[in-house]
Design goal:
Blueprint: E1 13-17, H1 24-32, E2 36-41, H2 47-56, E3 61-65, H3 71-79, E4 84-91, H4 93-105, E5 109-114, E6 126-127, E7 138-139, E8 145-149, H5 150-154, H6 158-169, H7 171-185, H8 191-206, H9 208-211, H10 216-236, H11 245-256, H12 263-277, H13 282-291, H14 298-301, H15 305-314, H16 325-329, H17 333-342
Parallel strand pairs: 1-8, 2-3, 2-4, 4-5, 5-8
Antiparallel strand pairs: 6-7
Helix pairs in contact: 3-4, 6-10, 6-12, 7-8, 8-10, 11-12, 11-15, 12-13, 15-17
The structure holds zinc ion.
The site of zinc ion (ZN) has 7 residues, from helix 12.
Length: about 350
């Protein structure tokens, strides 16, 4: 096979709009048929959504409560997969990630039904699961279909939507890192996937005031941008256009300060600093994050100054195969402190 060949995997159908949750039954019919449907959903998915799903899906539903994005939950979903027509993940990040990996391992179609818009995992081929052999996302397959009900997502807590904006601005530095790696190591670079990821970031950077109102129109723009960002990863065949040094920074913090801060918030913080290292407009990133009510300081995310500095120094070690500005510049403690303080993060 051509060594430069790579596989592009994309969602087949996306249904987005207000009240579309009522159409879930029809949406998944091609995969479900008359078979049972396994639905992974979180405890926060309230009863109203559950009853709408039950009214719409005619097939028998096997609800699996997902309480953490870990392998125990993935195995629980896999345990129900025999004889099922498809897996549906309904909820914030956890249920979608767990359902996606379980469906992939059981070779079943997966449908993503986000109830918040906090990261681009709603459409990407990757799943963030704890307890795997590495602290970053695992490759799975993109959802066959994504059903995004703007009415449901608009009622999510605002901090989750702000986090989605943080995950989107991070494409600015992820793409810079990808270009750098291409120059230095000769790694494959896909201009189309990169442009698509950048367009998603610019939805937030250029329209932050509009999105920051988080009304239905703002939420719709946010969700569409998150979906196309995940699609960019599908086109690239890797997480490269969506995940660079700012994501390594966030993943490192997941290890040293588990449970502190949302993924998108930590990525947003990382983007401010990595943008400075890449000499792009880090102040513009910071202003956009402020407009969408995202934290721009370590304290705002709940992190200590030391944790941020350590993450800047050590983040590149958790994924040595991913060449980024942090591998290029190799910050020592002093340089890391200076970067974090000059950008106002600490
Ligand atoms: Zn992300």
């Amino acid at each position: 096979m051509d060594s430069r060949a790579h596989l592009m995997e994309l969602p087949t159908r996306v249904l987005i709009g207000e009240g579309v949750i009522n159409q879930l039954g029809n949406f998944i019919k091609g995969s479900a048929g008359r078979k049972r449907v396994v639905v992974a959903s979180g405890p926060r998915v309230h009863s109203k959504v559950r009853s709408l799903v039950e009214a719409s899906v005619k097939a028998r539903i096997d609800w699996v409560d997902v309480d953490a994005p870990d392998m125990t939950n993935v195995r629980r979903v896999m345990g129900r997969a025999a004889g099922a027509g498809c897996v549906v993940g309904i909820g914030g990040g956890k249920s979608v990630d767990v359902g996606k990996l379980a469906a992939f391992r059981k070779n079943l179609d997966f449908y993503s039904v986000p109830t918040s818009a906090s990261h681009d995992g709603i459409s990407s081929p990757f799943a963030s699961i704890r307890g795997l052999d590495r602290p970053y996302s695992a490759k799975a397959r993109p959802p066959v279909g994504i059903l995004a009900d703007v009415e449901v997502i608009s009622s999510a807590p605002q901090r989750l939507l702000s986090a989605g904006c943080g995950d989107l601005v991070s494409k600015l530095t992820a793409v810079k890192d990808w270009q750098l790696a291409h120059r230095v190591t000769g790694e494959y670079y896909g201009g189309y996937a990169a442009s698509l990821a950048l367009m998603s970031a610019h939805v937030v950077v250029d329209g932050s005031r509009r999105i920051g109102r988080f009304d239905r129109e703002g939420v719709r723009r946010l969700v569409e941008a998150l979906i196309s960002s995940g699609v960019a990863a599908g086109i690239a065949g890797s997480s490269r256009p969506c995940s660079g040094s700012e994501h390594l920074f966030s993943h490192y913090l997941d290890l040293v300060a588990p449970g502190v801060g949302l993924h998108g918030d930590k990525c947003g913080l990382g983007t401010i600093m990595m943008a400075n290292l890449h000499r792009i407009d880090w102040r513009g990133v910071r202003d956009a994050l402020l407009n969408v009510h995202s934290p721009v300081t370590a304290e705002g995310v709940g992190l200590g100054e030391d944790e941020v500095v350590e993450a800047l120094v050590r983040a590149s070690t958790i994924r040595p195969d991913r060449y980024t500005i942090l591998s290029h510049r190799k910050l020592d403690r002093k340089a890391a402190e200076s970067l974090a303080s000059s950008t106002g993060v600490i």
